[in-house]
Design a protein that fits this description.
- There is one protein chain.
- By secondary structure, the chain is of the alpha+beta class.
- It has 2 domains: 124 residues, no CATH class; 100 residues, Immunoglobulin-like, CATH 2.60.40.
- Helix content is 33%, strand content 26%.
- The protein is built from 5 helices and 12 strands.
- The strands form 4 sheets. Strands 7, 8, 10, 11 and 12 form a 5-stranded antiparallel sheet that branches. The chain has a 3-stranded antiparallel sheet with strand order 5-6-9, with no helix packed on it. A two-stranded antiparallel ribbon has the order 1-2.
- The longest helix is centred in the middle third of the chain and has 26 residues.
- 22% of the residues are buried.
Length: 239
């Protein structure tokens, strides 16, 4: 695709895979594969296939896992890791992204579903990137149930394992659903409030004893005020 054609579409994708630590690169690469697997209908004939990309990312993950054991033996697999990173980056940044640029036809929502960043272009002036690889989100580290009729939910970031909010994040919302089938989104859940200092205390009524509570966490973007990547579903029984 020519630069002029990209400008005419006013829609430029970015992969956000540059200047990352080794661990973060692998995490984000896995995020791209997961996102593409969840939205195969966006680019049905994507090449390489999601399955092929999955294999290459898995190779990189295995090299990273083996790094510690190899180091203990006085050896290093740094060159192998760098070579495999190039393979993975080529798939996500060059092969997949160019196909997404064409297939999505300016649909910002779909681009962000796939984890790609978006640069808007207006009269030649680039707007800030408004998308990021969908890997960073909050997770529940533990749910303390020792106090009767109370859950103390402990929360960290999945990448940093810290309670500190990442850059660009306004706050962290926590949602609950008592009983029923495990939710797949925050739709229909109750917003409990904002998690502060990595902890939220949730109290219950006696009538709730024995019920399962489902929790989902979601960061709020500081600039837009919009919800970002939500956490997996976590649960605990009320005692």
């Amino acid at each position: 695709m020519s630069p002029q054609k990209i400008l005419n579409k006013m829609f430029i994708l970015t992969s956000n895979l540059g200047k990352l630590t080794k661990g973060l690169f692998v995490t984000k690469a896995r995020g791209y594969v997961t996102a593409m697997k969840s939205h195969t209908d966006y680019i049905p004939d994507i090449k390489p296939t999601v399955e092929e990309a999955d294999v290459e990312v898995a190779k990189l993950e295995n090299l990273q896992k083996a790094k510690g054991e190899i180091a203990k033996a006085g050896k290093a697999n740094t060159a192998d890791i760098k070579a495999q990173e190039k393979v993975v980056k080529k798939i996500i940044t060059y092969e997949w992204m160019s196909q997404a640029q064409e297939a999505l036809d300016g649909d910002e929502s779909k681009a962000k579903d796939l984890g790609y960043g978006i640069k808007g272009v207006d009269n030649g002036t680039s707007a800030p990137t408004i998308g990021k690889a969908k890997s960073s989100h909050a997770i529940v580290s533990t749910i303390d149930t020792e106090v009767s009729l109370q859950h103390t939910v402990h929360v960290v970031n999945n990448e940093t394992l810290s309670t500190v909010l990442p850059d660009g994040i306004e706050n962290l919302n926590i949602y609950e659903q008592i009983g029923g089938v495990a939710p797949v989104s925050t739709d229909g859940m109750d917003l409990l409030g904002i998690v502060k200092n990595g902890r939220y205390i949730n109290s219950f009524e006696v009538a709730d004893i024995g019920k399962t509570v489902y929790y989902i966490l979601c960061y709020t973007d500081k600039k837009t005020g919009k919800a970002l990547q939500m956490s997996p579903v976590f649960s605990a029984v009320i005692g």
